[in-house]
């Protein structure tokens, strides 16, 4: 895909994008032939310069979208030039720019007149099962334009780019949003599978009596699942509310696709909740085994202390440098003292083990 990188200044930090902040862009146009409301549009890579010209030639007016085509632009919000370019050329509502600076990154979908604003949380491209390996994707779409932006590389949006590049059929901007949600659901299904394999391995080693450091692994897994659930759970409810009153430009087929994608997403979230409960039960089992090992160690320490008590007391008493030490002049005094110590040690051990048996 041709971009405007050749116009960058030497040493300028573009954060993986062109000088306008564009990472990639696609222009969708209808193939030659009779117009059809459900026709699949053909994708063509586009640069920021071409996108600026396209937006100038196609002002946002009511009319046939298929004839003019669609535009999908994906920006890197870490590039300072991105917001300026969007304000100058994209004609986006002020609410979109406020959401970029708002700091509230919980998943939501809002309607501002005939424009949809969405904040979607996703896994980072380099994901290592850490709770911090999540980031936010901002979305703004209308009848003819889809704007997406992120500060860190994300997985689902890149999967959508690959699908579009490879010829995935696209009807409208709402269809692109539905495909993005399906890719995100597929990514979460893969995450649940991988997490389940790790939890199965921990469970097998737990049943075999090999704890090692599985408690920390379970803790990290649970923190990740809790974070994803907290970030992603509002998305289905928000979409369902929106789809009750969609924008006038959204076709019935697009509304149904978004509804189906939302239902798939809800199923995945329920699986994540079930997996989180399973991790919680394993953590409780690990904690119980650790407590049992600790109790056994304390019991052994108690027994050793009790068995050593008679000899310590006897040695302390007989070791005092005072007169009147019994059996000091007796020819068999040492054997008598040893016999007394052994007898008291046996009695103390019997009492300790009897109390243990009485306690279950």
From TrEMBL:
It holds the Pfam family CorA. Its main location: membrane. One of its GO terms (cellular component) is plasma membrane. The chain crosses the membrane at residues 298-320, 332-353. It is found in: Cell membrane. Keywords: Cell inner membrane, Cell membrane, Ion transport, Membrane, Transmembrane, Transmembrane helix, Transport, Zinc. InterPro entries: CorA_cytoplasmic_dom (IPR045861), CorA_TM1_TM2 (IPR045863), MgTranspt_CorA/ZnTranspt_ZntB (IPR002523). GO terms for molecular function: cobalt ion binding; cobalt ion transmembrane transporter activity; magnesium ion binding; magnesium ion transmembrane transporter activity. It comes from the Bacteria. The keyword Translocase does not apply. It is a multi-pass membrane protein. Belongs to the CorA metal ion transporter (MIT) (TC 1.A.35) family. This is Zinc transporter. It comes from Sphaerotilus montanus.
């Amino acid at each position: 895909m041709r971009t405007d990188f050749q116009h960058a200044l030497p040493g300028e930090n573009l954060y993986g994008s062109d000088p306008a902040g564009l990472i990639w862009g696609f222009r969708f146009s209808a193939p030659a032939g009779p117009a059809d409301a459900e026709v699949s549009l053909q994708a063509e890579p586009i640069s920021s310069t071409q996108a600026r010209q396209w937006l100038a030639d196609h002002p946002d007016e009511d009319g046939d979208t298929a004839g003019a085509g669609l535009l999908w632009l994906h920006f890197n919000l870490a590039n300072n030039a991105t917001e300026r370019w969007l304000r100058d050329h994209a004609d986006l509502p002020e609410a979109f720019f406020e959401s970029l600076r708002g700091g509230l990154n919980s998943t939501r979908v809002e309607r501002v007149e005939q424009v949809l604003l969405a904040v979607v949380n996703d896994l980072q491209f380099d994901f290592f099962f850490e709770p911090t390996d999540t980031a936010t994707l901002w979305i703004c779409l209308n009848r003819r334009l889809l704007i997406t932006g992120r500060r860190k590389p994300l997985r689902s949006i890149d999967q959508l780019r690959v699908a579009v590049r490879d010829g995935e059929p696209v009807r409208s901007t709402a269809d692109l949003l539905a495909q993005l949600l399906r890719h995100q659901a597929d990514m979460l299904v893969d995450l649940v599978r991988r997490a389940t394999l790790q939890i199965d391995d921990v469970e097998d080693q737990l049943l075999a009596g090999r704890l090692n450091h599985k408690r920390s692994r379970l803790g990290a897994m649970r923190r990740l699942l809790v974070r994803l659930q907290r970030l992603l759970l509002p998305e289905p409810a928000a979409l369902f509310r929106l789809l009750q009153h969609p924008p006038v430009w959204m076709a019935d087929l697009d509304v149904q696709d978004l509804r189906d994608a939302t239902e798939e997403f809800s199923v995945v979230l329920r699986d994540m909740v079930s997996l989180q409960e399973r991790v919680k039960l394993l953590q409780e089992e690990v904690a119980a085994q650790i407590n049992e090992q600790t109790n056994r160690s304390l019991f052994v320490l108690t027994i050793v202390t009790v068995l050593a008590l008679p000899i310590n007391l006897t040695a302390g008493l007989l070791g005092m440098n005072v007169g009147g030490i019994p059996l000091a002049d007796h020819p068999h005094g040492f054997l008598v003292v040893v016999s007394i110590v052994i007898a008291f040690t046996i009695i103390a051990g019997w009492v300790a083990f009897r109390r243990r048996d009485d306690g279950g």
